[in-house]
């Protein structure tokens, strides 16, 4: 089975790239960030403290997360596709994902998925921790301002009206948290190809990524 690992900071476009690249290649697609968001959603719904790693790990283990072909996610028999994108979950997910106990549970599930099918997997530690031997690793990035504006547009589309400065501050804080956390911090794998999407449209990013994949796998473009 072939794993294509895509890492990068929040708002860089990892989910969109991974989904479209998987479609082009005929691979499955796994958004690991959605897994952590689902656990954060359940924690908020059930009133589990975000600093209680052991209890959060139990939530993760009992959530029985499943992904539909259209990208929707079911957690604890509930379609949480909409809820996991809400600001409250976005604010909680970094703390939830920093717990080693939670990461251990979800890492096992991610590796199980990668062992049974060709898959494009995106997150923040896929190429460094989850699949360090993946044959193709991409690190997608963009300037903080570009990423913040993308996220702001997503929130507005979902009915959440936030200011540009507020979104940028939240993005910068998220970057600092993700790169500075003790467990599986965000960083580029030494053998990952970095793609900066700041000045590119999504089609250009997908094509750039596809060419990297073809070259790494040794097949014609």
Strand order of the largest sheet: 2-6-1-7-8
User: Class of the largest domain in CATH?
Assistant: Alpha Beta
Termini gap? 20 Å
Q: Supply the CATH superfamily name of the largest domain.
A: P-loop containing nucleotide triphosphate hydrolases
**CATH topology of the largest domain, which one?**
Rossmann fold
Radius of gyration: 17 Å
Task: Report on this structure.
This protein has nine helices and eight strands. The protein has helices at 14-25, 32-46, 53-62, 87-97, 100-116, 126-130, 144-157, 164-180, 202-217, and strands at 3-7, 28-31, 66-67, 73-75, 78-79, 119-123, 136-141, 193-196. Helices cover 53% and strands 14% of the residues. The two termini are 20 Å apart. It is globular and about 50 Å long. The strands form two sheets. It has a five-stranded parallel sheet, sandwiched between helices. Strands 3-4-5 form a three-stranded antiparallel sheet, covered by helices on one side. It folds into two domains: 1-27 and 118-221, P-loop containing nucleotide triphosphate hydrolases (Rossmann fold), CATH 3.40.50.300; 33-116, Rossmann fold, CATH 3.40.50. It is α/β, with parallel strands linked by helices and 221 residues long. The model has no long low-confidence stretch (mean pLDDT 92).
